[in-house]
Write a structure and sequence with these properties.
The chain is mainly beta and about 1000 residues long. About 10% of the residues lie in helices and about 40% in strands. About 50% of the residues are buried. The model is unreliable at about 1-20, about 375-380, about 835-840, about 865-870 and about 1005-1010 (pLDDT under 50).
């Protein structure tokens, strides 16, 4: 069988080059074909001829005859409709077979018609063509067109590599052969363990033949130069390879051209070098990767910011995408056999040409590099001498080999200078406050909000805070840096890349000015370009930042090429569809995407994914999507991303309210960002991934899975004969529940962890038996006495409770390990109707919390769950209040006198950090105020509210009647208390800010708390 995969030619182009008269297309209506049983013809006025053919199910076919005027290559264009992605199989004359990938058009009828072109070989005369799909359903079909595009080219005979130069990796695993043939073409081939990996593949550039005189010089050298990294997947890396240098010469003997290979046991890299020459422009790339076998590829369609999904694509789907779009971005993971993979990318890009993308090569299984054009002209990049291209790199082996490889970094030069000032770290980031809702639209411009992120970083023991777009004209940098320094937190600031010059001296002046103000680093955004000038600009900024002692985070950027070895101040790069998407699309970046990133994007360098989003800033919490096949990610999955993804600056996307006193807080205090060792434990593209990272003597394990499964993790990576404690955080009873287990383990043990669909787990394995760990305790509403139990598949435990007016729920056995302040988080749903059951959705409601039989009923407002789905149980709200509990068993009541309170799913009780520290003996009780005391106090006739981003102050009498409600601005706001019934009587002040609520009882005109 012959199969040819040329780019499609338009009719206008074909006519322009002078094709014969029969270049008019032959048209065959699908309804005029012979249809197998079950295939139907249906009227459709939007289709050609007013009809379409449907139900071309598995094994069903259309058969017809096409009369060709001449032997040759024909473009077969199929017009189709399908709601799902489908494929067609095309057989010509009962022997030659072709496939066509048909992406979804969104509908089965002619409202949207897709077009797919396939080049087929026809003989002069009648050709019998059969269209269908033997293994699955084909799309609905409208018509077919056949256009002559030329003679069938002769297949080139295989290149004889028996006389080629041969070089092998240090352990002999990989072998490279290279030669120039009698036609002046240079080719290379790669074998792994004696089996062909790449068949002879082209080398060189477009527009110039360098190989006419063949190889005139060559040499081989073995190099073993291990090195250390200041941050990344490992602190120590091997760098052991065989270098093969080949020098070619053109026919005039005027220019010499070097192709240099570095052959590692797990990779082959090549680059082009010229000491001098007459070539002025890099006009295009010829480098090919002709895979001997090709099963599928994990590939991302090329986009200038690399923010697309990586998707598994067999060859026919890959070439369909390549023909209709602009190729694929690097890296691309190719599966060649059941157990062998190859990751294709670039390393050590110095700006001597534009970045590369990946396009379809000359035959099946063939990929080729192409330079990203700067404009519509043919000229791509200007060559300066001495010239050295980036390393075209193929990392080869098992998935474990690829993920654990440091070849991309090894192909970059070692750093020069003193970088001891660099400190990797965890980052609180104020972008999570930026939403479409007008109430929060300017929060990245508010210094009070920025200060709250400083406090979050201090609370978690993190190193940095990042203020993002909008700070420049709104936040006084000197004031903010001073505040952060007082709290032991370093400051990073955001800039658009257009604020930085292409000139080194100007970049250095700007960065030194920032450093003089105490700024530790910059996040530079919106490059969105792979052209040569932009690649050079990255390098200029990195050099200047290194001199100014500034750390760098590139966003809206190209993908990494190992620069972090030469410039350890490059902490991370984006180039990923990351966690910030969850701010507006909670169904994005699910577990298949995370598994794919482990095996592709994050395998080549640090990745600023910005993980962890538990809920919307308002407390809205989606628990399930509308379909069981596509559930939202669990909290345990979100937590696992913190360890799963490597970044020298690990930046949190969520806001302080969702993190402080949350069950995941103890983990966020502990997990580092720079690693001594990384091991991939298991993975399958688009399904799951589990890896272990070591920092010092401690191991951190993360796993995620697209489908529900039991993960089995052998602990063979632990030191034998040593006892460890495993702190296991895994999926609980619902999407927003995290279960915790602590157990003793050794290297002989295997952990079995149940993971939900789109779920995950995090395990900390350490010799420390007293690590901070999850202290939260759940109490299901259905376990409380009172109320009416209702069923809901979206709620924790499958139930929630409704509470009638003047009734309550009683949680009778709430345990506390010590006296102190506890965070009480309520998961609730507003009633679907108001108190009269009119059916109108309630905008807000209120309920009280009473601790103990003699405690006061303290009321709190419960607001609507903003823009998200109000369906019962599908979207919950969460609200955290603070209560004082006594050591032992406590009683908590939840209810409302004189109104309908929200339906309740569960409550979670967690000691605050201050309380837990006292319990653990880390500190002694002191005079520090509680959270509530800090938020509310009475001064004369005014309530003083302290918030970072504003809120609502509600005044209730002791019977729960709302007396006054006032919006308060950020900072310290003074609210005059209006005259109340019974002057001087007690009242409750309740302050809601974000998902936090604070309440205190006051007596008017009295300074002291009652």
């Amino acid at each position: 069988m012959k199969r040819f995969t040329f780019k499609s030619l338009s009719l206008a182009l074909l006519l322009a080059v002078g094709l014969p008269a029969f270049a008019e297309p032959i048209v065959v209506e699908a309804e005029n074909t012979t249809k197998s049983s079950g295939v139907t013809t249906e009227a459709d006025e939007l289709c050609s001829g007013g009809k379409r053919v449907g139900y071309v199910g598995k094994g069903r076919t259309l058969t017809f005859t096409v009369r060709a005027e001449e032997d040759g290559l024909y473009q077969m264009t199929s017009y189709y409709m399908t709601r799902d992605n489908r494929r067609m199989e095309i057989t010509v004359g009962g022997k030659d077979s072709y496939k066509a990938y048909c992406p979804s058009t969104g509908a089965w009828d002619g409202t949207a018609i897709g077009i797919v072109s396939t080049n087929i070989s026809l003989k002069a005369g009648n050709n019998t063509i059969v269209v269908g799909n033997a293994s699955d359903n084909a799309p609905n079909l409208d018509k077919f067109e056949f256009l002559y595009i030329g003679e069938v080219p002769d297949e080139e005979p295989p290149v004889d590599m028996s006389d080629a130069l041969v070089a092998t990796s240090p352990s002999g695993i990989l072998e490279v052969r290279v030669k120039a043939d009698e036609k002046g073409r240079a080719v290379y081939a790669v074998a792994r363990s004696g089996e062909p990996l790449l068949t002879p593949s082209r080398l060189g550039f477009e527009g110039r033949t360098f190989f006419a005189s063949g190889i005139v010089e060559h040499s081989q050298t073995e190099v073993d130069e291990p090195f250390d990294l200041m941050h990344g997947r490992t602190s120590h890396a091997d760098n052991h390879y065989t270098e093969l240098r080949t020098t070619f010469q053109d026919s005039t003997e005027a220019e010499q051209f070097n192709v240099v290979f570095r052959i590692f046991d797990d990779a082959v890299a090549l680059r082009y070098e010229m000491a001098e020459g007459n070539l002025t422009h890099f006009e295009g790339e010829r480098t090919e990767f002709n895979f001997a076998t090709f099963q599928q590829a994990l590939a991302q369609e090329y986009h200038k910011c690399y923010e697309r999904y990586y998707e598994l694509r067999p060859w026919d789907e890959l070439i369909a995408s390549a023909a209709n779009r602009s190729g694929f971005g690097e890296p691309m993971l190719v599966q060649t056999t059941a157990s062998t993979y190859a990751l294709l990318t670039e390393a050590c890009h110095t700006g001597q040409h534009a970045a590369c993308k990946i396009v379809q090569g000359s035959k099946e299984g063939s990929l080729r590099l192409a330079l990203v054009a700067t404009n519509d002209a043919d000229t791509v990049s200007t060559i300066t001498y001495p010239f050295a291209s980036s390393w075209r790199t193929l990392i080869v082996g098992s998935l474990q080999d690829i993920v654990e490889s440091n070849v991309v970094q090894a192909l970059n030069p070692a750093p020069t200078g003193n970088f001891s000032w660099i400190k990797p770290g965890r980052v609180a980031w104020n972008w999570a406050e930026e939403t479409a809702r007008s109430a929060y639209a300017n929060n990245t411009r508010d210094i009070n909000v920025a200060k709250r992120y400083v406090d979050l970083a201090e609370h978690l023991g993190w190193e940095y805070v990042l203020i993002d777009d909008g700070w420049e004209n709104n936040i006084n940098l000197t004031t903010f840096v001073r505040y952060a320094r007082q709290h032991g937190v370093g400051v990073m600031v955001w800039y658009n890349n257009n604020k930085f010059s292409d000139t080194y001296s100007e970049c250095l002046t700007k960065l030194r000015n920032l450093a003089s103000q105490g700024v530790k680093g910059v996040k530079i955004d919106f490059f969105d370009d792979d052209k040569q000038a932009t690649i050079k600009k990255y390098q200029t900024i990195l050099r200047a930042a290194a001199t100014a002692r500034m750390m760098v985070d590139f966003h809206g950027s190209t993908r990494p090429t190992g620069w972090e070895r030469t410039f350890p101040n490059l902490m991370t790069m984006e180039a990923v569809l990351g966690g910030e998407m969850l701010l507006s699309h909670p169904d994005m970046t699910q577990a298949d995407h995370a598994a794919n990133l482990v095996l592709s994007r994050n395998a080549i360098g640090p990745m600023d994914f910005t993980p962890i989003k538990l809920a919307q800033r308002s407390g809205s919490l989606k628990t399930h999507s509308s379909t069981a096949e596509n559930p939202y990610t669990t909290w345990s999955y979100q937590l696992a991303l913190w360890t799963l993804f490597e970044s020298g600056m690990q930046c949190l996307i969520d806001c302080p309210d969702n993190i402080i006193d949350c069950p995941i807080e103890p983990v966020l205090r502990q997990v580092p960002v720079a690693w001594d060792e990384t091991r991939l434990l298991e993975a399958e593209p688009a399904k799951y991934a589990s890896l272990a990272r070591r920092s010092g003597d401690d191991w951190y394990v993360a796993t995620v899975s697209k489908t529900a499964r039991t993960v089995r993790i052998p602990l063979k990576f632990l030191e034998e004969g040593k006892e460890y404690t495993a702190y296991i955080y895994r999926d609980g009873v619902c999407t927003f529940d995290i279960a915790f287990q602590k157990r003793q383990v050794t290297a002989a043990n295997t952990l079995s962890i149940a993971v939900k669909a789109n779920g995950g787990a995090t395990v900390i394995v350490t010799t420390d038996e007293n690590r901070p760990c999850l202290r939260a305790t759940n109490y299901e509403a259905e376990s409380a006495s009172g109320g009416t139990r209702r069923s809901s598949g979206h709620c924790s435990g499958g139930y929630y409770k409704t509470v009638k007016e003047n009734a309550n729920l009683k949680f009778g056995r709430v345990k506390a390990d010590g006296d102190g302040e506890y965070a009480l988080t309520l998961y609730y749903m507003l009633p679907e109707g108001d108190a009269t059951d009119s059916g109108a959705a309630a905008e807000e409601s209120r309920a009280y919390i009473q601790v103990g039989d003699e405690g006061e009923k303290v009321y709190y407002d419960f607001h609507s769950r903003d823009e998200l789905d109000q369906s019962k149980g599908l979207v919950l709200g969460m609200k955290t209040i603070y209560v004082q509990l006594k050591e032992g068993t406590n009683i908590i009541y939840y209810g409302c006198d004189g109104g309908v309170c929200p339906d309740l799913d569960k409550i979670t009780v967690t000691p605050t950090k201050q309380t837990q520290d006292i319990i653990d003996g880390i500190s002694l009780p002191d005079a520090k105020p509680t959270n509530t005391d800090r938020a509310l106090r009475l001064e004369g006739d005014c309530i003083v509210c302290s918030t970072f981003d504003g809120g609502t102050l509600s005044i209730f009498d002791m019977n729960g009647h709302l007396l006054q409600k006032t919006h308060v601005e950020a900072g310290e706001a003074r609210v005059m208390v209006l005259p109340l019934k019974g002057v001087g009587g007690p009242f409750i002040a309740s302050l809601s800010t974000g998902i936090r609520a604070f309440a205190r009882k006051f007596l008017l005109n009295k300074e002291r708390k009652q």
